[in-house]
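Hi everyone,

Forwarding the result from last night's run.
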Amino acid sequence: MIDPSFQLKTRHRFIDYLYWNLVASVPVITACIAIAGISIFWFVVYLFLCITLIVVVYRFYCTHCPHYTADTRTTKCMFFWGIPKYFTPRPGPLNLFDKAVSLIAPVIMVGFPLYWLFLRLDLLVIYVLSLGVVGATIRRYECVRCIYFECPANCVPADIKKQTTPQG
């Protein structure tokens, strides 16, 4: 039996975008503080790396999502708002290469600052806890209602997937 109050997240609001970017900014800012306290050069490298990897994820992961493939000129999702759709929408499941890129890019972004964070154990604790909050919160509140059924992280109940055909 499906809970009658259950709803798929067919569209994000601007407040969702603000919330998720604020939540995700905590580990990034923590990493930036740790790196910048030791080396401005590596801080700039980290910022450049983050921007590059975000574009890579946008290209290889986001272009499959119904929020991206929707017939709009800009992206309106929990992490990207008002960004023009530079890349061709590719509805459907991720291929093996897209999955690999979509997994490796965040691993690099998360792993890169660890050297500097281990030099500042107080910031390492904040970093690890805030990453845990980001991951657990996304899993709990987004993945269970996500309309991108082909996403490897999607955990919408199978009975809802069977009776629902999401539209971007």
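Residues 14-163 form one domain.

Cheers,
N.
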